[in-house]
Specification:
MetI-like fold, 79% helix, mainly alpha, MetI-like_sf, ABC-type sulfate transporter activity, Sulfate transport system permease protein CysT
Length: 278
């Protein structure tokens, strides 16, 4: 006989919990995506392509996904580093820093955008310093990048932090006892253990950055073909009651996001299998 489709748990309540899970999944994920695809189907492939295949749309899509990917990669490196420092070291202000990581979760995105703009505008605290060396941050792609880093960093740090707490120091000591250098221990012992969680945090940070609107809109400048993001184009189409065009751009973002997340999941599977064979 083949394997059963459902591995039942000794605890009761499978039917109820499965029903609640599928209901919430349908309401939150499947129905909105289905409505978007249905709107696109009514618009037709020719209409979708005609809407998307414009210089302004391609520029916005390229800008959004490029900066989102770069910000997620930045957060992947520094989020893992931050999680490691917070878990393994004790220093003054550690608890304050640990609490500050969650600030982007609690802060409304519009408030975050206004605060970042005030800090990095040419007359702001950091923007004034940057302007003195000829570097403009606000109303450029640098400003968008900083905003995306700000909203995405907690996803990586909070995902990796519990895994770092579970890694016992004896693992590092055993590696050192066997003659491994610190770099060898980091590459072949620590990083493989952190890789699945780090990639999960990377995927979450990337997904958040791709759809981010509130914290970016104030600091971006919103110049077409330069600093205009794809979510802003969707908002513009909705304000003009051009729902078909908004759905077309949304479908383009959905397909690109799905391809990127699929690639990340494949890397995660490869990483887990590699760890399992080491």
């Amino acid at each position: 006989m083949g394997r059963p489709l459902i591995h039942r748990s000794p605890m009761p309540g499978l039917g109820l919990s499965m029903g609640i899970t599928l209901t919430m999944l349908s309401l939150v994920v499947l129905l909105p995506i289905g409505a978007l695809l249905l709107k696109g189907a009514n618009y037709g492939l020719e209409g979708i392509w005609e809407t998307v295949n414009r210089e302004r749309v391609w520029a916005a899509l390229f800008l959004s996904f490029r900066l989102s990917l770069l910000a997620a990669l930045f957060n992947l490196v520094f989020g893992v580093l931050l999680a490691w420092v917070l878990v393994r070291y004790r220093f003054a202000g550690r608890r304050i820093l640990d609490a500050a990581i969650d600030l982007p979760f609690a802060l409304p995105t519009a408030v975050a955008g206004i605060a970042l703009t005030a800090l990095y505008a040419p007359n702001g605290t950091f923007g004034h310093i940057a302007a003195s060396i000829g570097w403009k941050i606000a109303y450029t792609q640098w400003g968008i990048f900083i905003a995306l880093v700000f909203v995405g960093l907690p996803f990586v740090a909070r995902t990796v932090q519990p895994v770092v707490e579970e890694i016992e120091r004896e693992v590092e000591e055993a590696s050192a006892t066997l003659g491994a250098s610190r770099l060898h221990t980091l590459r072949h012992v620590i990083l493989p253990m952190l890789a699945p969680a780090a990639l999960t945090g990377f995927a979450l940070a990337l997904a958040r950055a791709v759809g981010e609107y509130g914290s970016v809109i104030f600091i971006a400048g919103n110049i077409p073909l330069v600093t205009e993001i794809a979510p802003l184009l969707i908002i513009i189409q909705l304000e003009e009651f051009n729902y078909d065009a908004a759905a077309a751009i949304g479908i383009a973002m959905l397909l690109i996001s799905f391809a990127m997340l699929l690639a990340i999941n494949l890397i995660q599977i490869w990483s887990r299998r590699r760890i399992g064979h080491v």
